Amino acid sequence: MTTGPRARVLLVDDEPDNLVALSAVLEPLGRELVSAASGEEALRLLLREEFALILLDVRMPGLDGFETAALIKQRERSRHLPIIFVTAASKDTEQIFRGYSEGAVDYLMKPYDPAVLRSKVSVFIDLHEKAAELEESEQRFRTAFANAPSGMALLSPDGHLLQVNRAMADMLGHAHGDLVGREWESLVHPEERAEDLRALRELGEGGRSVYRAERRFMHADGRELVVAISVSATAAQSASGRQLIAQLEDVTERQRAERERAERLRERAARAEAEALYEREHRIVETLQRSLLPARMPQRPGMSIAARYRPGGADVGGDWYDAIELDDGGIGLAMGDVVGHGIEAASTMGELRNALRAYALDGLSPGAVLTKLDHLVRRLQEDQMTTLTYAVIDPDWTQLRFASAGHLPPLLLGCEGSAEFLWDGRATPLGVRTDGEYAEGTLQLDGGSTVLLYTDGLVEVPGEDLLAGLERLRQAVMAGPAEPEALCDHLVGSMVGSDPARDDVALLAFRTIALPRELLRLDLPTDRSSVCYARRALGRWLEQAGASRKDVWEVQLATHEAFANAIEHAYRFGEALVQLEAKLADDEVVLTISDTGGWRNPVEGDRGKGITLMRGLMDRVSVEGGDGGTRVELRRRLSGASGLAKPTVPLRG
Fold first, then answer.
1. Which of 62, 186, 578, 610 is deepest in the core (most CB within 10 A)?
2. In this predicted structure, what is the pLDDT of residue 376?
3. Residues 488 and 537: beta-carbon distance below 8 Å
């Protein structure tokens, strides 16, 4: 899209009717058309105005078209201006040859095809406007280069300084003219030149794309300056290789190599781009990061899960979380923190999240997942480090397996109200291991337990010991509500407050819901995982009631058949809910499977044996079907039941 002045076209003809005709043909191009009635007038216009193209008549009084074209081409400013002769004069080959000899790009005879003329003019207009855009872009680059707040230099493939900006000259204490032409190595401390020379040679030959390092540079007064450099190859190619562009920043006063991630991001942003682009990058990164977080949390019977993410201040970092529904019915929980800020940290976060999901869905254990991610980080992100905790909760919500790559420990809130940190399964962050696998921790979960994963932004306070922050978190968890959504809000409010967070904050709470002892009620969606969960939940419920293994297995099998029938026949695998209710009465288990779908009569063939199977396993089976749905009741006396327990609140799936 053209942003500069629009191209203007000069029409030269001594006949007013011809000028009107030309204007009518070219008007649809939407460009300014300037008319001149003679060669002399055209030359005067060219002295003070710019044009993209000239349409010139050959036969005119005074200066004819050929003479006018010759004078135009003699002037340096208009030498490259394209000229198209438009004439009704002789079609003699000699005349046409003379026109091209005077520098014309085309020679059209009247009458001409308006569409052809308009197309030819359009091509030259586009060429002129694109050339103007390119010149404007190059001028902006030269201005940005010269006025950049950080030092910048253009190097030849052999390491000579071709251009330097004012900031670099001021930083090294040299006059601008003293630096141009010098060798790069003459500015670097002698002990650090060898690696620079090798890296610059690889950049020039295309062997690497970027070179970053901290080097000691020599100031004009003899002082040593610690300078962070970033060198990359440009598109400019010569016989000896590609030219190089270098950015330099004096970091001598920096007392430590790394500061808090927010401070490092501001420093990189200051080197990489102008102040005006900073806020735009911040919005892009936050949008990218939020888009990479889960759109919704898994909803499974017997558990409840919630998460929160709050970006930190002006700098968005690499904190992230995930909750993955595994193929076996379990849940994978992840909480990670990519060191750094900005687009780089957010994109790394996205790569790790996608890789983790792939490994998790392959059924790998937490330790194996972290081992593979560690290999991935060391291959793709040589200078990147990430902390991560990955945990797997089994389909019965009774066992927790976890491994940590340098991340803060998970916090377990027991069903009785006590809270403790899980320090097992800890190892170094991703990207720094050299061999071996990540160890795992294992823990049995009681019904009503809560597992909390979080990032350092929730607990870290400048000047405060980390252990003190962890203890504040433990106390806040014990004092908070049990329900995960409310617990997350409570922790953000009590640990961070309403003020903008200093650092990114991410937390995830997973809570198991204890099974009722007397009455079990599940409202489950019509998918395969619901059948599996119903079978497992029913088995646990029967076991805690004292049922024998044989009773448990046969009741599970009959219930599985009834539940699967409701999904397949009542709803034709559509989205709906099926209710399972189980209760104990005088050592007899009574199960009811209800749906609101349509009734389907039994069919002949290999299928349709479900009711026969249920009747063979249970003492009594009754099926009531109609327009309002189907209700299947299964009864069986348990051989090893331990009696009734106190009533409790039903479980809602």
1. 578
2. 87
3. no
